Amino acid sequence: MLSSNTALTIAKYAFGASVTATTLVIGGLWYFQRSLIYPSGFPEGSRSVVPKPIEVGCPYEDVTLTCSDGIKIKAYAIMARKKPLMLSELRGLTPTERKERAQNEMEAWAQEMGDEKAIEYSKSRPTIVIFHANAGNMGHRVPLARHFNVDYKYRTRLTSSHRYGLSEGKPSELGLQIDIQTAMKYVQVHPILGQTKIVLYGQSLGGAACFYAASKHSDTVAGVIVENTMLSLKTLVPLVMPQIPKFLLPILLTEHWDAHKTVPLIPSTTPILFLVGKRDTLVKAEQMVALRELRGSGRTRWREFDGEHNDTCLQPGYWEEIGKWLREEIEDDGMEVVDQNDGGKEN
Fold first, then answer.
1. Which residue from 347, 317, 322 is spatially nearest to 335, judged by alpha carbons?
2. The whole model's pTM is what?
3. How crowded is residue 266: how many other Cβ atoms within 10 Å of its Cβ?
4. Domain range enclosing 16
5. Do the beta carbons of residue 267 and residue 299 sit within 8 Å?
6. CA angle at residue 210 from 209 to 211, to 5 degrees?
7. Are residue 303 and residue 316 in the same domain, yes or no?
8. pLDDT by residue (tens digit) across 166-210?
9. Same domain, yes or no, for 33 and 56?
10. Which residue, 154, 270, 329, 344, has most beta carbons within 10 Å?
11. Residue 5 pLDDT
């Protein structure tokens, strides 16, 4: 049996170890938080290998934008086409044959852009601006862009943020906000992309970017689609790192992404589609519920899927729901509104 002195010594060491561990976690959060929040190098190779839209059959324009801070960021612009290349036409081809077919498609698209009817068709279609999540690069979202571009004939814009993919700079909330403003300005003044309605789409942190963009460009944003997005980093960190005292978060966090402040700035007439993964253990559904409640009686639609944080977009019915919302809320300019007291179900 332990003596009282031995027990006290063990307790002191245990307490000291606990304090040390907590201090290390707190110090690590403050010092490394941008690396934790913006893992631009994950998965491996993300800073050097960026998949191109043509790899999934979508001809594109490779764009370099200069931000207000002098940083150069990369982007893809994909125009709407009446007869896009179908994936079935690429299946069964050897790598060499796929490369040749891709080159032929790029040449055909270049010719189309010299045809007035093709240009007018592209101008007549809405534009989707995709803001990617905090890991990977814009090339990893090319399959998402293909859905919008081929399935719904939407012009599509992908941007690689500060120090993501082949872009310059270091990622931070301020840097990404500058990227957002740069991307929106590019779309708005583009002779084709800026001619019709602009819809924003974002997953996770990309959803917070959408809310920020919509709050700053409410006169040009026609709709917003967000998936598994947090209320703010201040509300998310305690769920991921519960050992950090909540009262220290305002001091420790240099990155905020306060969607709870930007959502109320978005006009109630702007439709928002909330896509929720019910099994998401990182950004739990409660975060999205809180965001939806901030909309009050605004135009809102809520859809749940049996997905986790990173695979919600792969769940059955996901793209069908997006297509339905685009037709009813953007193209038909519908007025369907969610009853805020029904837990997210439509009337």
1. 347
2. 0.87
3. 23
4. 1-37
5. no
6. 90
7. yes
8. 999 999 999 999 999 999 999 999 999 888 899 999 999 999 999
9. no
10. 154
11. 56
